[in-house]
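Annotators were shown the component list below and the corresponding predicted structure, then asked to write short factual statements about the assembly.
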Amino acid sequence: MKVMIIGCGRVGSVLATRLDEAGHQVVVLDRNQQAFRRLSEKFSGRRIVGNGLVEEYMRPTLQEEADILFAMTDKDNVNLMIAQRVKRNFHLERVVAVVHDSILAGLYKELGVETVCPTDLVIKDLLQTIQES
Amino acid sequence: MYIIIVGAGKVGYHLGRLLIAEGHEVMVIEEDRSKVELLSLEFHDAVMQGNGSMVEVLKEAGANRADVVVATTGNDEDNLVICQVTKMMFLRPRTIARVNNPRNEELFTGLGVDASVNATKIINAVIQEQVKAGDMMIPLLTLKEGNIEIVEVELTRSSHIVKKKIKDLSLPEGSIFIAVIRGEEVIIPYGETEFQPEDKVLALVKRESEQALRKIL
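Structure shown to annotators:
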């Protein structure tokens, strides 16, 4: 699969590394060159320094028929805007926005934007831990 | 009307002031506490602290009974989400977004924002209009301590004096055309001289007549 990841933070960098190890074609974009230090040394994918809100940085990758995009910068609203723009302007199979605010994540899901909410996942996990103990 | 403004930057602040002066009920939502404190001296209860793209904050501001929600922050992604959340959760208000990057305007309307305001586009339109109005009068030389000027104006298709003869114009007192530069040719104008687009017109004008001259061009 060809995967584009916007935001090379703690989660984005590990996701990129894992997907790369699993043999997928990975492109990571981040505004900050330093962020790429989080990737493993063996990472063989592409790194692009650029702003995810500016379409030009993504266009070459997305036009080459990427299958899936993850918008996972540290800002919910940035991720939601990126996801909606990409859905509108390119033909990707899946576009996923990481949204920390649980209510926002739910609202945009209803609007047809695929969202993943880390807050919900952590809570679910914690609750499960409590129930098991 | 009840109007909620998100973002108390320059745009949000002045918009709020104007709307209050016009007798509207206003609530400004601002995230930065120090700005809120400062603003409350003037806006009193019409300002609150919070993140305007959060549902709870909009609800607390009374978005369910608002007529309009205006997102005026300096970040387009925030303005977009503020308007979309308002649309999804509160149905009633019209949403207006400030667009900071002109390239986002189309996206905003495509994603359900009712209206977007783009400062770059507005300023550009004003400039275009001013250019047409002969405001691109370039001072070449000032004489008598600035009381008399020689100015140059390049005519466009839409200039008022194009296709007209000098004798048919009512030139304001204290001004006279001294030369017309048409391509390589320099014409010393007289009554029968007819102006054409792209002519560069040189005029001698008294300072007090400058505005009047601008108007007829």
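Statements collected:
1. Chain A has a mean pLDDT of 94.
2. Helices of chain A lie at 10-21, 59-63, 76-89, 102-110, 118-132.
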